[in-house]
Amino acid sequence: MRGMGAGSLRRLGVSLVLGCLLGASLAGPASGASFLTVIKSGFTQPLYVTHAGDSRLFVVERGGKIKVIDSGSVSVFLDISSRVRTSGGEQGLLGLAFHPNYASNGLFYVNFTRASDGATVVAEYRRSASNRNRADRSSHRRVLVIPQPYSNHNGGWMGFKGKFLYIATGDGGSGGDPENRAQSKSTLLGKILRINPRRSGSRAYTVPDSNPFVGKTGRDEIWSLGLRNPWRCSFDRETRYLWCADVGQQNYEEINRHSTGKGLNFGWRMLEGFHYYNYPGRTSGQKCTSNCRTLPIAAYSHSGGRCSVTGGYVARRSGATFHGRYFFGDFCTGEIWFIGAGFPRGKSLPSPRHNAGFHIASFGEGNNGRLFVVDYGGGRILRINGT
């Protein structure tokens, strides 16, 4: 999920090229096997797990399938493999979000890289009228298309807050954001977008008037900017704050917390974590001391083989042992951390809570608030006990 070249293999590319070697070398659990429990296995390159407002879990596979776990049985909910490009290690079916009124309207949205040209597509589908565990493939409606100049840094997460759909996009790829797209308000790359995805007359979607650049210079869809490759975001069920992990370039991984305000600038490519990266007049690698945009809540370095952050969720299930903790991990080492939902900006991270022993592609949340973790190479969905 980083840059190009053998020295920059990240996230999905790592698993594709070095999967067997790295999988065998990952450390075992640091805090006992009881921390994680396997819920279901047998998936192919799973990237995400989520719910549709009930007890079922929906698993997104990179190749273009969404599978549903219902009372222990697994079936294919949607197969759009023919529409999806999966080359380059970071392309594929990357995101899924169910409309908040899914129970009544049956609408859901997917984010994938298009087979013909690798462009990011956000599309709407509807569930089958006769089978709740099957989607209607013919209901495909294209909502948004974002051209991608390179094959990497596609982002892909989507989530609803009220009726508005938030979409995380990468900076377009290559390494170091060579065209500075994350800072440009004229492109949708390197951003968090906010739209109403429902059709309105001839328009495929609408933009809320309250978005920060409506009526100003900049694309109306932009909610915040300055992101490199946001890999998994989430809304805190209690505070409704947006948490978003952003994969770094060479030295640092970061966790951002979007609590108040809009139009926030998270700093990339000027900043990487708390440090200058490509900031005019400043020395790369030094800690930012002024005009730092919106700094991350937390960051960690690439020591010990760490290389690519995977964002997670704040545990909010009533009575949960880890209630109020935000969980996240590192794809390459398999380490899992948690911090308090009110973690002070810039405070040193605690030691990892656990080492999963596999490549963490994503975290997920069930309808009841339980948290899950996705094993990319092993094809498993595991529950985080105590959440």
Task: Give the structure's gist in a few sentences.
With 387 residues, the protein is mainly beta.
Description:
The chain contains two helices and 26 strands. With 387 residues, the chain is mainly β. The chain has a single domain (6-384), classed as Neuraminidase. The radius of gyration is 19 Å and the shape is globular. 5% of the residues lie in helices and 35% in strands. A hairpin with a 2-residue loop joins strand 4 and strand 5. A four-stranded antiparallel β-sheet has the order 1-26-25-24, with no helix packed on it. A four-stranded antiparallel β-sheet has the order 2-3-4-5, with no helix packed on it. Strands 6-7-8-9 form a four-stranded antiparallel β-sheet, with no helix packed on it.
Q: Any chance you could write out the topology, listing elements then pairs?
A:
Elements: H1 12-25, E1 36-40, E2 46-50, E3 57-61, E4 65-70, E5 73-79, E6 93-98, H2 102-105, E7 107-113, E8 120-127, E9 135-146, E10 158-161, E11 164-168, E12 191-195, E13 222-225, E14 230-235, E15 242-246, E16 252-258, E17 271-272, E18 275-276, E19 298-301, E20 309-310, E21 325-330, E22 335-340, E23 354-355, E24 360-365, E25 371-375, E26 380-384
Antiparallel strand pairs: 1-26, 2-3, 3-4, 4-5, 6-7, 7-8, 8-9, 10-11, 11-12, 12-13, 14-15, 15-16, 16-19, 17-18, 20-21, 21-22, 22-23, 24-25, 25-26
